């Protein structure tokens, strides 16, 4: 409304038929008049030719000094130090001569400093000429005059500059020494802090001056940029006596624009470090480069959608921070996808690429969808905020994350396939010596590369042991301690956030929106020192009364673009408004009288003829003499309320008369009537001063707004039809910001949590897992926000966004663990927890580490947005990883769902294939995995925990053994599957989903229990559905046919009775043996006792093929007869030289004995290395045994 009020605007203070005349009267003559007044004022203030040209004010550049050692600034050393710093840092700059104000061409005006004022009061020529006695004398004058300043009798114009004496009319009660040159007033008002010689401090001599202001005779603004950059930016701001702690050059936002670009080097460094970590983890430069291209493409595509599809025109600088967040999310997705890809590739080394991609996406795409959708939803939830910058940032960042997800499930798998097909050996540098060619230089680089490979292998080995052995043990063994600890942290965080000290609302005005770190001198001036000096407190309204402005005739509707702060929309007028009717005149006059009687209205002694125009108009009409005919009917003969035509005519004359008689020019903010182009009154504005003082405290402003608004709403209920749609407004911009931040942040967080829970539930279809994930998110948010509160954060615009985004970022790790828990093939809680930790632990830890490092790299930045984002990213990653790994997993271990517990029933067509297969692969609790944990069934079928941390490393490891298998281990270390080797059971066609568990390193129960004797160089086919290929060893059947059966053969008492039905009487007992074939055909070595073996390890002397399990019925008698019938098979091939140290293969037998019914039935599930016996076949003789980890 203010912008649409004025000459030739929608509304005007004057009738338009007088507009041209008034424009000539009030605009053209003002230029010479203003110029004359300016020159006159400068001449008046030039009371000493060597000193000040003008009075200090807000338009001049200024700095704040404090003592370097915390001492009193009121000392001759400190006062001269301030003068010296002014000369050295400001006045000596090459640009100062062109910027300073001057009274002549020879010299610039002096600065307003304490030293110069002391020199004036003691007739000294300059600041450097003052003495200790002058300082003491000035202090005495200040002490005696302080009471006159604080009680308001000492004003800014008590000294008559023309007569060079005290103005007797204005300051009669003030001593002359306090009014001389108005210097005492200016010292108190501009140069010293408000606590110096205050009424309270006068009782405690000697007075202490903590801060002092220095004004430079240069206009603040962009012209001061070079002075700051050259003399203040990289200076330590101290000379040992005084320190420059605050600066106001008027260049804060201009400097911010420069820093915003120059400080992008810190996010760039963070991105480079993330890429290096990603390159080391994925061991592929190609995948890393393609990932960053996908991330950048996400930002570009989202910008296109933001501008062209969503039609957003406003692009706040906060949108740039989406790059850092997207790099962390993209790295997280890349780690998960590559990890699942490598697991799938080693589970099924001979599978087609299409099958590998399908299995990988079945898990990875599901996890990435949940994390991406929930994070994007957290950003989109910011759209409910009333703050435009927050809305725009939420839409842009949420869109970028969704586009990134689409690329991660389309672009990145294609990149991995290309890398697998065409670039598997590009970055392999370790080759056998007989394959190395070239000069010594090439061999030198190859040696360095091999050493680097060994170092990386060591790190990989330590990481593998930690995530597959140590971490599950720590989580499971100490689960009750972790639950208690994290619950206590959650309660403590909730107390800090909600009770004490609470998340505080912003304490700085919109004009002083913080953009640099709190220690920056520009921010310190706005946050700390502005409120310490009286002229700033008065200028910014801290000691001014809040206005109460009531408007009729304009509809309070914002029809501008809510997503573009530059689009204010059009002014909507109220067609029912009518102030000219007699009823409206009476009501508005009574309204003004009632308003003045309210307790919240300030009663002023000064004549106020603009607050309520109807009162002034009525008084003017009553004072008009009707003797002249030209005056009628606008005179005292007309009786209030006036007729409508009389009111419309006379109000125009009254306004013009007011302007001519009082020389009071009406502007767009002046209360009163508003006319349209036809001279019709279309709106009125009333304004009163309230008893409430302006403050940044939200509670006081809330009380003011509610009290005044409630009273006005009640009065408007009885208003006539023409005045029934009035509304109240005041200087509530900052209060509105605080209110929007308070409500919008809570709503955004609630929406984010609701969406996260919904997506998790719709993805897993398990209520318990989703509930645990939300509890983990809640704990993460409380602890994170509580930490930010203790760090001094206030709920400003950027803080509001980061806190609401905390939901989206904290859900990622819990979702990854939750999805892995649901996809685990084990039927029991502990097995599922171990599976999720071992499968997802390293990828999640790397994602948290990279995001943490990215945040840490942004901390040196000067821009507050970067430092706050970096701090937030470090906190949220650490806390989120800890809650997901320890709190969420411990809840799953204690009360996690098993089987269909907590599962939402759905038709099979709607069920996720991955979850369907997982559920079907766990038919009963009796089926146990051969993972890190071992289980027993008690007599009641209950679960008994037998978890122990197995040996983590071999007791003996020599460099020779590391070197022998370097070729094969290099391939494995670079995650290239040994396709050129024959893999046992690589061509098994599983008849059902139970058998697929072997592909994941778990016990697979074969549907046909076969009675086979192992020997060399023969093959055994147990039924048509199961083809067993053994290389170089094969098994020969005891009988020609092994009839298939649909019955399963797990390790349990219940199935022990099945054995006699298929057992030949020649067998005395039956053994269930799990045979693990590890050693390839061409590379075989002795395995050290107790050596941990995993497919991903790829050490030179370890076994690297997947483990498979077969149930056999071992023969105990008549072995000699079988050998006599097969002499050639018994002889076997010649082991060749070195057979004692290098065997042809390896079989690790973990034996589960099942007694027959005629003996005591017991089941031994303790897996121990089984020594090969002659009766078990000659294959056992050619394989060296070693105790091997069965966790995979």
UniProtKB/TrEMBL annotation:
Primary site of residence: membrane
Alphabetical keyword list: Developmental protein, Glycoprotein, Membrane, Transmembrane, Transmembrane helix
Biased composition (Low complexity): 1164-1176
Keyword Secreted: no
Pfam families attached to this UniProt entry: MMPL (PF03176), Sterol-sensing (PF12349)
Transmembrane segments: 259-278, 284-305, 317-343, 363-381, 393-418, 480-498, 746-765, 771-793, 800-820, 840-857, 869-888
Composition-biased stretches (Basic and acidic residues): 957-967, 1182-1192
Keyword field contains Transmembrane: yes
Record-linked PANTHER family: PROTEIN DISPATCHED HOMOLOG 1, PROTEIN DISPATCHED-RELATED
Protein role: Functions in hedgehog (Hh) signaling. Regulates the release and extracellular accumulation of cholesterol-modified hedgehog proteins and is hence required for effective production of the Hh signal. Synergizes with SCUBE2 to cause an increase in SHH secretion.
UniProt-recorded name of the protein: Protein dispatched homolog 1
Organism: Neolamprologus brichardi
Taxonomic lineage: Eukaryota, Metazoa, Chordata, Craniata, Vertebrata
């Amino acid at each position: 409304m203010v912008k649409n009020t004025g000459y030739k605007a929608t509304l005007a203070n004057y009738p338009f038929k007088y507009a041209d005349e008034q424009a000539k009267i009030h605009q053209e003559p003002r230029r010479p008049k203003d110029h004359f007044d300016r020159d006159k004022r400068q001449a008046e203030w030039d009371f000493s030719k060597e000193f000040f040209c003008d009075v200090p004010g807000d338009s001049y550049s200024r700095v704040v000094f404090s003592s370097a050692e915390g001492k009193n600034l009121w000392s001759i050393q400190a006062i001269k130090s301030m003068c010296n710093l002014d000369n050295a840092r400001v006045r000596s700059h090459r640009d100062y001569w062109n910027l300073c104000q001057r009274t002549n061409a020879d010299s610039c005006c002096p600065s307003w400093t304490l030293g110069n004022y002391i020199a004036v009061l003691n007739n000294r020529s300059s600041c450097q000429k003052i003495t200790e006695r002058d300082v003491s004398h000035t202090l005495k004058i200040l002490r005696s005059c302080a009471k006159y300043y604080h009680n308001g009798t000492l004003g800014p114009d008590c000294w008559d500059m023309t007569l060079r004496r005290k103005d007797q009319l204005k300051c009669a009660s003030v001593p002359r020494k306090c009014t001389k040159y108005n210097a005492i007033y200016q010292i108190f008002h501009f140069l010293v802090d408000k606590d110096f010689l205050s009424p309270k401090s006068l009782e405690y001599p000697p007075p202490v001056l903590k801060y002092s202001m220095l004004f430079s005779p240069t206009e603040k603004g962009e012209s001061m940029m070079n002075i700051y950059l050259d003399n203040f930016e990289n200076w330590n701001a101290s000379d040992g006596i005084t320190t420059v702690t605050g600066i106001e050059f008027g260049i804060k936002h201009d400097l911010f624009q420069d820093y915003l670009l120059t400080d992008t080097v810190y996010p760039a460094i963070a991105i480079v470090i993330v890429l290096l970590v990603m390159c080391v983890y994925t061991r592929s430069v190609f995948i890393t480069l393609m990932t960053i291209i996908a991330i950048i493409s996400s930002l570009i595509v989202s910008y296109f959608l933001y501008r062209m599809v969503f039609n957003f025109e406003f692009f706040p600088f906060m949108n740039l921070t989406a790059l850092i967040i997207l790099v962390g999310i993209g790295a997280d997705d890349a780690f998960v996808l590559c990890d699942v890809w490598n697991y799938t590739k080693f589970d099924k080394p001979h599978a087609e690429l299409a099958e590998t991609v399908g299995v990988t996406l079945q898990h990875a795409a599901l996890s990435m969808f949940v994390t991406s959708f929930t994070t994007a939803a957290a950003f989109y939830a910011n759209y409910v905020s009333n703050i435009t910058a927050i809305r725009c940032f939420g839409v842009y960042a949420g869109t970028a994350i969704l586009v990134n997800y689409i690329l991660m499930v389309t672009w990145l798998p294609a990149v991995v396939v290309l890398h697998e097909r065409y670039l598997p050996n590009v970055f392999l540098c370790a080759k056998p010596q007989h394959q190395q060619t070239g000069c010594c230089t090439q061999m030198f680089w190859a040696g360095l590369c091999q050493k680097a490979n060994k170092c990386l292998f060591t790190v990989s080995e330590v990481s593998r042991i930690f995530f597959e052995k140590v971490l599950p043990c720590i989580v499971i063994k100490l689960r009750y301690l972790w639950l208690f600890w994290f619950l206590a942290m959650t309660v403590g965080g909730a107390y800090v956030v909600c009770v004490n000290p609470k998340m505080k609302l912003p304490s700085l005005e919109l004009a002083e929106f913080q953009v640099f770190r709190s220690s920056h001198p520009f921010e310190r001036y706005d946050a700390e020192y502005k409120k310490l000096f009286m002229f700033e407190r008065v200028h910014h309204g801290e000691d001014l009364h809040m206005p109460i402005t009531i408007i009729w005739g304009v509809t309070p509707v914002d029809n501008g673009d809510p997503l573009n702060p530059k689009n204010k929309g059009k002014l909507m007028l109220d067609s029912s408004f009518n102030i000219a009717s007699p009823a409206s005149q009476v009501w508005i006059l009574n309204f003004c009288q009632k308003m003045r009687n309210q307790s919240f209205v300030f009663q002023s002694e000064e004549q106020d003829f603009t607050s309520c125009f109807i009162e002034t108009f009525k008084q003017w009409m009553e004072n008009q003499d009707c003797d002249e005919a030209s005056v009628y009917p606008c005179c005292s003969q007309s009786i209030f309320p006036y007729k409508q035509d009389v009111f419309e005519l006379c109000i125009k004359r009254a306004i013009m008369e007011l302007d001519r008689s009082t020389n009071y020019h009406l502007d767009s903010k002046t209360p009163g009537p508003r006319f349209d182009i036809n001279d019709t009154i279309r709106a009125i504005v009333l304004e009163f001063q309230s008893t409430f003082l302006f403050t940044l405290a939200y509670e006081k402003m809330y009380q003011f707004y509610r009290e005044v608004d409630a009273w006005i709403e009640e009065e408007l209920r009885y208003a006539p039809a023409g005045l029934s749609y009035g509304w109240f407004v005041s200087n509530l911009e900052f209060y509105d910001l605080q209110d929007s931040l308070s409500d919008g942040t809570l709503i955004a967080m609630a929406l984010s949590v609701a969406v996260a829970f919904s997506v998790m539930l719709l993805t897993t279809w398990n209520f318990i897992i989703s509930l645990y994930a939300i509890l983990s998110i809640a704990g993460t948010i409380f602890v994170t926000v509580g930490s930010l509160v203790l760090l001094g954060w206030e709920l400003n615009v950027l803080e509001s966004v980061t806190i609401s985004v905390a939901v989206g970022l904290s859900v990622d790790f819990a979702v990854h663990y939750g999805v892995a828990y649901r996809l685990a093939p084990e039927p029991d809680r502990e097995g599922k927890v171990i599976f999720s930790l071992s499968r997802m632990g390293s990828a999640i830890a790397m994602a948290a580490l990279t995001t943490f490092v990215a945040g840490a790299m942004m901390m040196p930045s000067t821009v507050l947005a970067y430092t706050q984002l970096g701090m937030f990213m470090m906190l949220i990653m650490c806390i989120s990883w800890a809650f997901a790994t320890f709190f969420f997993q411990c809840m799953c271990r204690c009360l996690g769902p098993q089987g269909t517990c907590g599962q939402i029933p759905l038709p099979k067509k709607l069920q996720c294939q991955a979850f369907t297969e997982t559920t079907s692969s766990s038919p009963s609790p009796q089926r146990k995995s051969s993972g890190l944990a071992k289980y027993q069934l008690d007599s009641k079928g209950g679960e008994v925990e037998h978890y122990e941390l197995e040996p983590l490393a071999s007791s003996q490891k020599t460099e020779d053994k590391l070197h022998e298998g370097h070729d094969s281990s290099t391939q494995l270390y670079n995650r290239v599957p040994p396709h050129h080797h024959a893999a046992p059971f690589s061509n098994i066609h599983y008849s059902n989903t139970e058998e697929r568990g072997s592909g994941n390193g778990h016990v697979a129960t074969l549907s046909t229990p076969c009675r086979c004797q192992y020997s060399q160089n023969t093959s055994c086919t147990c039924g048509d559905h199961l083809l067993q290929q053994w290389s170089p060893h094969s098994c020969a059947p005891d009988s020609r046919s092994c009839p298939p059966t649909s019955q399963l053969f797990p390790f349990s008492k219940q199935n022990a009775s099945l054995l006699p039905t298929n057992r030949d009487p020649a067998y005395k007992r039956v053994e269930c043996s799990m045979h693990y074939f590890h050693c390839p055909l061409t590379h075989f070595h002795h395995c050290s006792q107790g050596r941990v073996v995993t497919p991903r390890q790829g050490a030179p002397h370890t076994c690297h093929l997947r483990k498979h399990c077969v149930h056999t019925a071992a023969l105990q008698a008549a072995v000699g007869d079988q050998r006599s019938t097969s002499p050639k098979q018994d002889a076997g091939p010649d082991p060749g030289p070195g057979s004692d140290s290098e065997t042809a293969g390896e079989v690790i037998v973990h034996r589960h004995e099942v007694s027959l019914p005629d003996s005591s039935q017991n089941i031994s599930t303790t897996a121990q290395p089984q020594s090969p016996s002659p009766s078990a076949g000659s294959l056992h003789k050619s394989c060296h045994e070693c105790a091997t980890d069965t966790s995979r």
